[in-house]
Amino acid sequence: MQTANARRLVQRNHFAGPADWVSEDLYSKVTRGVARRLRAEITLQPGAMAHTNAYFGRFEASYWQRWTGVTAVRVRADVRLGRPESAEPVGAHGTVRVRASDIAGHERTVDFASVDAEPGGGPVTVEFDAPVDKFLDGGAMWLEFRAGDLPLTVDGVRWTVGADEAREGRLPNAVAICTFNRADDCAATVAALASDPEVLDVLDHVYVTDQGTDTVDSRPAFAAAAEALGERLHYLRQPNLGGAGGFSRGMYEVTGRAGQANVLLMDDDVRVEPETVLRMTAFADHTASPMLVGAQMLYLYNPDYLLLSAEGDDLSVLKAGLPADDQALHDVSVIDKVQERRIDAPYNAWWSCLIPASVIREIGLPMPYFFQWDDIEYGIRARGRGFPTVTLPGASVWHADFYWKDGDDFGQFFGLRNSLITAAIHSDFDVRELSKELSRRVLSAIVAMQYGFAETLLAAVDAFLEGPGVLDDGGRELLARVRELRSGHPETQRLPVSEMPAGAPVRRIVGPIDKDKEDLVLAKKAARQLSGRVEPGPVAIPYEDSFWWHVSAFGEVYVTDASQGGVRRRRRDAAQARALTRRLGTTVRRFIAEGPAAQDAYRAAVPTLTGRENWARLYGIDLADTTVS
């Protein structure tokens, strides 16, 4: 038998979340009787049953079998039994089972042990060696506990693998967080990382790149975390270069040092399950070859809901955030449903994503996109160079639900421009087909009376056609230009609900349109809007009903903002609609004519744009100076 020193911890089992707002059922489930669940232990009353076949409770064996060289996992637990009132022996009082599932959710027992009461009531350690050999397409392992005629308490559940099974031993790990005026959120994230001693043991560096004016170092929580982290914490200040610039700075600093390190990128406004860091870093060390290891996203406001099992992209229509597989879970409670099928990921968003230093050295730093699509482009680029991505279930952070973010904001400029650049670099880039997609987006905004949104999209296409030089300043100048452009359109601004007429009737949508006839419906709606054949309004439309084909039936609407904190007032303006439609025609013709040349220019510029020299210039630092305080 191997000694404990020859084992590598890859997962712990907690029985409740890091805070009261997280349901215990994400970690463990009580199926019979009464049990008390705490973070570190679970106590079952006589006759009770519980298991860890829960989102954070499972060992994701399918992913370990597919992507690592690990062939077996050892799981151990400390079990204590209550003492009987009688001194008479009463036999076995508890059972621990290792259970497993397959791609279809069929369950089986891998191993089990009966537990007897120890003299003096001390703990009994149970240990199992479970093969990781029947999970290639799906399935996981977990523990099941049954109490007999005595209370049963379980803690110290640890899953380990042989230390010699790691690809390169335990590599150093660095967390890189970028923040912009989210000081409280960022301080809380850093504090969460510093709160778990075993997580601290696997963190060698924590980089916080602060690009805001409300600085993180002004918060007491950050000061307390800094004391716990000590020399591992590196606090950097720089001008606002967006998410791309903030994350890239952490990657730049890590790869500028000697040796290798994993760089774990993490949003500033997530709520962290510290166990996620331990699982991601352990998995990354054991992959058969270097690859990106991403965490899943749970909703912050609905903490048991999963955004997606894994995300995919379709560059032919400039879309990402799509289900990577038809079998992927999407917008469902992972208390009610677990993911059995292994889902392969084309990329992982940077709410939490680990990138080995060897990948960064091979493919370069991110594109200087400022905002949006930097993570998507990087994952696609890595995939094309032979570095796949895994989105690891049971490794997750809570992030603000996208549902609460309104789609009409300055980010749409960067989203469209950057998706066009990404498609130019990584796809066939059929300009005629893409021009149809661009036309649909702009026309649907026009008919929905979102004139500022339509102008934002048109400006994004123009910026793309400027070529790689549009990225020279990292996005600061363009951000100012886009905000100024949008300020001239009142419907882009959120108003207090008190400004909505009290008598405005609510108009709900009646059924969806036929997707096969979407272009025909769009043309008819545009004609009706231009001719004024609409209900005059004002009317109120809930956010969930604010599809363009519904909003376009009215002349004046108050649409609830996605944040539910106000409304947007949209009014029909035939002159604006005609001007924007004419501009769309000009822009599309230019896109078809100039798009192929722009594609060639962007492809040629990738090595320069993603190089250390370019990023050092944007940071305003000496390229040779890689030390930080």
TrEMBL record:
<dbReference type="InterPro" id="IPR040492">
    <property type="entry name" value="GlfT2_N"/>
</dbReference>
<protein>
    <submittedName>
        <fullName>Glycosyltransferase family 2 protein</fullName>
    </submittedName>
</protein>
<dbReference type="Pfam" id="PF17994">
    <property type="entry name" value="Glft2_N"/>
</dbReference>
<dbReference type="GO" id="GO:0016757">
    <property type="term" value="F:glycosyltransferase activity"/>
</dbReference>
<feature type="domain" description="Galactofuranosyltransferase-2 C-terminal">
    <location>
        <begin position="437"/>
        <end position="619"/>
    </location>
</feature>
<keyword id="KW-0328">Glycosyltransferase</keyword>
<comment type="pathway">
    <text>Cell wall biogenesis; cell wall polysaccharide biosynthesis.</text>
</comment>
<feature type="domain" description="Galactofuranosyltransferase GlfT2 N-terminal">
    <location>
        <begin position="35"/>
        <end position="160"/>
    </location>
</feature>
<comment type="similarity">
    <text>Belongs to the glycosyltransferase 2 family.</text>
</comment>
<dbReference type="InterPro" id="IPR029044">
    <property type="entry name" value="Nucleotide-diphossugar_trans"/>
</dbReference>
<dbReference type="Pfam" id="PF13641">
    <property type="entry name" value="Glyco_tranf_2_3"/>
</dbReference>
<keyword id="KW-0808">Transferase</keyword>
<dbReference type="Pfam" id="PF19320">
    <property type="entry name" value="GlfT2_domain3"/>
</dbReference>
<dbReference type="InterPro" id="IPR045699">
    <property type="entry name" value="GlfT2_C"/>
</dbReference>
